[in-house]
Design a protein that fits this description.
The complex is a heterodimer. Chain A is an all-alpha fold. In chain B, a hairpin with a 5-residue loop joins β5 and β6. The chains are: A mainly alpha, B alpha+beta.
């Protein structure tokens, strides 16, 4: 453990400045959180009407990234060639970091974080099996430990024996991890879809659509990460990796378009409670920045991303196009599945009122801080992975 | 096994000793109210969920609530935990023909329950155009010179004390539950403030304390109940409890008492002779969003 940690901290001055920069980025957010704790959540833009906002939006998005990081790359450890090994480890690191991010977003969203132990078994009164939120926390924690454990064991094995663990020893763990990956995202979808009080979320399409958009955003995110790591850390990524990621991204984006189209059909063919929010985007009701342009933009980006990734595939996976498509995918899905979807579910209220929600600077600062902290952790983990690779090559 | 005392362990030990002595000194030099505050804070932090507390622990919690009110708001209150009565399940019926949109219930409820100035009231009266049941056409902030307006009708909504409450199912820590008399309550000291119950409730009945509650001492109602109108804190959920601080002692809820037209009928659903049962049996009654199957114990009816 100590050897591994030492590897994380060592690096050139550029790496150190990067870490320092991330730490600095977290400071305004930490102070914002302290303010939120002393004043109350009134310093955010949330209200009884829109009682979840920016934080829970990020939570949902990062659960998706966490789930897809594993579903995408870890099976490759067993079935694909040597060139996937490092990528798979980076995927593990990404999953761990994304789960940390989503847990932190929950932590900053609750009104009484010092009472978190009320949800723990034995000392508290966790509400099993009724509460979907209890389930969600459980699967997220299991997933976190599973991935952290798997990654740690893999690295240690590599360091001690200089080879990757054999496939058959990894297989059972990987199957469990993939199932848990699907699990965390499905449960998160059920958290929203299971509320008849919120017709906009109350659709059986939500969970499948979550999986599909997670895979799309996850492969986009992976592509961007690998491109950046290639430039800053000289990571060598073999061609099959790019091709597979591009193919996965393009095909899930196509499925996503079908889902999106059927959402539109149901919403606009014969309007119902489920369509109120989507219609409000055109009728001018409601007063949040997430009405109108934000959601329409998110959908437009997803369409462009689909076209772009197909184009990139057709052009033979050139990096320029791939990066463009990945950027569009991540942005479009982040905008929709993050805060857009959350706020949309709350409007109008169950009593038919259109309320407003404007996130405050505190929310942005805290969000930035969480992202910076998680990137910090990710940088350490990637550093360790690359150092182990370098030492055992 | 003894180890030679090295510099590091020595320093650690020394620091710990100094810190302990200093801490004890500070504690001893505090006046009694401060140590009491500290004790209350610590005990409050470690307090168990209401249903898991022993009778003694509940008494201590009640005493803490009274002390805190004196300290923070400068008011003397009495906080009790009157249990539900046997053979009682509370229910409500509301005569829409009589409701004139005066919103006296809203005001009375707000006062009786020591609601914070920062919060919205528990009861919401929606003004709807005659002939429409479409809630999105409702006016929540209506403020005409006189009520009722000829072309509107009024729909008061509050917690429906559901028999299969979506809010209770949602809560991840069991901080909200249904009492044997049918009232859905919240342990304000156990709620973690996640607001999932607020998301799950189809009647928009729950109110969150987005900031430290503000209740002017002058209007603090001093007869309080642990599960009812006692002072709340920042970051927790609250809602209508059918005024259980009153109704468990045989009184009527504040909204019922305040209604100038007698539109509200409150009572024990298990009492076959009661007015509530008469209404349920002889009028055409209906429940709001019955199709969501939360089984409200709150009915609406009209005279015709
Ligand atoms: S009306 Fe809402 S808050 Fe009240 S019991 Fe029903 S679900 Fe719970
Ligand atoms: S806000 Fe409080 S009562 Fe509501 S679900 Fe969360 S912990 Fe339970």
């Amino acid at each position: 453990m100590r050897v591994l940690l030492g590897m994380g901290w060592s690096g050139g001055w550029r790496y150190r400045i990067w870490l320092l920069f991330l730490a600095m980025l977290a400071i305004p957010g930490v102070s914002g959180w302290v303010e939120q704790q002393t004043e109350g959540l009134s310093v955010t833009g949330m209200s009884d009407a829109v009682s979840w906002g920016w934080y829970i939006g990020q939570f949902v998005f990062f659960v998706g990234i966490a789930a897809s990081a594993i579903i995408l790359v870890v099976p490759a450890l067993v079935w694909a060639g040597q060139e996937w090994r490092t990528v798979a480890l980076i995927g593990e690191a990404m999953a761990v970091c994304a789960v940390c991010a989503s847990l932190l977003f929950i932590l900053v969203d609750v009104g009484r974080p010092e009472r978190f132990w009320h949800g723990l078994p034995f000392v508290g009164t966790p509400h099993f099996p009724s509460s979907i939120l209890s389930w969600d926390l459980l699967v997220l924690l299991v997933y976190l430990f599973l991935n952290a454990g798997l990654g740690y064991w893999h690295l240690r094995h590599r360091l001690q024996t200089r080879i990757h663990p054999e496939s058959h020893r990894l297989l059972p763990w990987i199957l469990v991890a993939v199932l848990a990956g699907i699990g965390i995202h499905v449960v998160t979808a059920f958290l929203l879809a299971g509320n008849p009080s919120r017709p906009f979320w109350n659709t059986a399409l939500l969970a499948p659509r979550f999986i599909v958009t997670a895979l799309a955003a996850g492969s986009g995110w992976m592509i961007l990460t690998l491109v950046i790591l290639r430039h800053v850390a000289g990571l060598v990524v073999a061609d099959p990796v790019w091709t597979l990621l591009a193919r996965v991204m393009a095909s899930v984006l196509l499925i996503n378009l079908i889902f999106l189209a059927s959402e539109f059909f149901v919403a606009f063919h014969r309007p119902s409670g489920h369509s109120l929010f989507m219609q409000s985007l055109w009728s001018g009701q409601g007063d949040t920045p997430f009405h109108g342009l934000w959601m329409k933009g998110a959908w437009a980006l997803q369409v462009c991303a689909t076209v772009g990734s197909l184009w990139a595939l057709w052009r033979g996976v050139t990096h320029g196009w791939l990066v463009c498509a990945a950027l569009l995918t991540v942005a479009g899905i982040w905008m929709e599945k993050g805060v857009g979807l959350i706020v949309g579910g709350f409007l109008p209220t169950p009593l038919g009122e259109w309320a407003s929600y404007h996130p405050t600077w505190i929310e942005y600062r805290v969000t930035l801080a969480i992202m910076a902290m998680v990137l910090f952790l990710f940088s350490l983990l990637v550093r360790i992975i690359l150092a182990v690779e370098a030492r055992t090559r | 096994m003894t180890q030679p005392l090295n510099r590091r362990t020595f320093l650690c030990g020394a620091t710990a000793t100094v810190a302990t002595v200093a801490g004890a000194g500070v504690l001893a030099s505090m006046d009694s109210s401060l140590t009491e505050t500290l004790g209350d804070t610590l005990e409050g932090l470690l307090q168990k969920q209401y249903q898991r507390m022993t009778p003694e622990e509940i008494q201590e919690a009640l005493a803490r609530i009274e002390r805190r009110a004196r300290r923070r708001q400068g008011v003397t209150i009495r906080c009790v935990n009157t249990p539900p009565r046997n053979q009682v399940t509370f229910g409500f019926a509301l005569n829409l023909s009589r409701c004139i949109g005066a919103r006296r219930c809203v005001e009375a409820c707000f006062r009786e329950n020591n609601c914070s100035e920062h919060n919205q009231p528990y009861i919401r009266v929606i003004s709807l155009p005659k002939g429409s049941w479409d809630l999105t056409r409702g006016d929540h902030g209506f403020n005409p010179a006189t009520v009722p307006e000829p072309d509107r009708w009024y729909l008061p909504v509050q917690c429906q004390q559901c028999e299969d409450p979506a809010c209770v199912q949602a809560c991840p820590v069991g901080a909200t539950w249904q009492e044997p008399d049918g009232v859905v309550v919240i342990d304000y000291d156990w709620c973690i403030g996640c607001r999932y119950c607020q998301t799950a409730c189809p009647y928009w009945a729950r109110r969150f304390n987005w900031r430290e509650p503000l209740v002017p001492a002058a209007r603090m109602v001093s007869e309080t109940h642990y599960l009812g109108n006692r002072p709340r804190m920042r970051g927790v959920m609250e809602k209508c409890t059918f005024c259980l601080q009153r109704t468990r002692q045989g009184r009527q809820p504040a909204c019922q008492e305040a209604c100038p037209t007698g539109a509200r009928i409150f009572g024990n659903l298990l009492d076959p002779e009661g007015e509530l049962r008469y209404v349920l049996e002889h009028k055409t009654v209906y429940r709001l969003k019955e199709e969501l199957h939360t089984e409200p114990k709150f009915w609406y009816f009209t005279d015709v």
